[in-house]
Predict the 3D structure of the following.
Amino acid sequence: MDRLKIAERISTITNPPIICIPLFTLICVILSFTSSGFDIGKFIVLEVISLIFASILPMAIILFWAKKLGTDKDISNRSDRYMPLIVGIISYFIGFSICLILGLDNFLTCLLLCYSINTGVVLLFTTKWKISVHTTGLSGPIGALILLAGPFGAIFGVIYPVLIWSRVLLEKHTLSQAICGGIQGFFLTVLEMYLFMNILNLPVSGLVSLGDSIIFILAIIATPILLGILSYIKTRNPRNIFIIGEIILLLAFFILTPANVFLIFVLISLTSVLVSLFSGDGFIWHDILF
């Protein structure tokens, strides 16, 4: 299988309404554990809400709109994305409203509101710049999993550099658009979750602190950002600069952060390097490192 077909498959399974199915399912599983054990009834309710309003309805409008316009399923033309994004905003907000009215789980309630607001932010970006919906859609639920499960949630960050490569190789986005989509999704999700829990008085106990969540996010995005910067600046020895930068980051995470954060940084860095190696000549990360 050639690299292009692999990139296409990665892009398909990480389409936001699709990737959110396993990630939201995992979120719902975690939320359904109580002091007395696993609450299957709670899980079913949360899973149905998340499936309908975070996956089925957004995917239905994407497929309908793509067919109506006669375009690809990614709706690559920036101006054609407005309607699916608007419907997504409405769908997530309806899910949030149902959770709020019925008094369902506070975490899922706030998360669906985050999705609605974050999609609105993407819509604003889209009026001027085609920020990656794929990397935003990936980083949002991973940010939520970091809040719920710390390093276990952060492990899913290994998908981030792989998805960046996929979207750039398929020429769906520039490198900066793919990287920035993830940065936006990570930070807005964790910041908004704490904001909405306080504003709406919907407390959730046992979450990873905001500060610790941000450190995990930095561990995920540090190496892709470094590679991204080196992709845009002209220098004679980008490989040497990368090595020096990585050593500095490695020491910083080793000295200043807990061991699990350091290990996440190492894992994402290794993944980014392996992606660069696999990508071959022509992909800017490969040209920098090899």
